Amino acid sequence: MKPDLYPQPGDQLFTVSTSPLKKLVHVVEGGWLAYAANYKQAGDRLTELAPDTVSAIPLMEPIMFLYRHFLELRLKAVLALGFVAQDGDAATKVNDILRRHDLRKLTEECRSVCETLEIFPEDRKLETMFNAFEACIGELADIDGGSISFRYPIDKRLQPSLTREIIDSPTHLQLMMTKLENFLNLLHERFQYIVDDNAGNNNGWNDEDEMCHWKDISGLDEGEAVTESENE
After folding, report:
1. Residue 165: Cβ within 10 Å count
2. How confident is residue 26, by pLDDT bands cut at 50, 70 and 90?
3. How far is it, in rounded angstroms, from Cα 8 to Cα 121?
4. In a domain, 187, yes or no
5. What total of structural domains would you count in the chain?
6. Are residues 217 and 189 in contact, defined by beta-carbon separation less than 8 angstroms?
7. Structural domain containing residue 81
8. CA-CA distance, 94 to 107, in Å (whole number)?
9. Which of 26, 67, 184, 220 has a C-alpha 20 to 30 A away from that of 207?
């Protein structure tokens, strides 16, 4: 038995050093978006270690936990911004969602904000994307509704947390998480525009300018071009 392989008197979990990592503390201590991005990146890295092979099996619970937590953090960040866009004094609502972990309910509230802000009548393609996003969230919520299944092998009733197979392709999972992330980025920017507009910080953009920008970043222009060419 080698003593240096075991905890010894004077050992410290964290060290104060001149390590290059010290310069990255601001990343670790970032806000909701930074935390979410870090969890997504960690999930991607694990997926890339063993994509679609048997060696990925022992990594699946950590991968799923990282991706699920990423989605929860991003949903909360987007929803909080939506509350601000809907009502400038949104502190109570924001504090409430921070205590919840149900992905399905968070998504339902996000839809409600979109409807209150009348985003869908302006942009039916966004509503179609939201429907697809919500369906994917529903799949994950069916497996892990309360952020427990990928953290513990049993639930609060001492029953197995996972009762069925969850995935057969980590690579596909990574692709889908990127799609969900892209959609949340779009929704975040839409809410941010409304917040800025309410505050008079949109640099003189009118609704037409905003729609052109929105189509550009979302790729909707390209989609409309394809539709138009098919109809000719």
Report:
1. 8
2. very low
3. 64
4. yes
5. 1
6. yes
7. 17-220
8. 14
9. 184
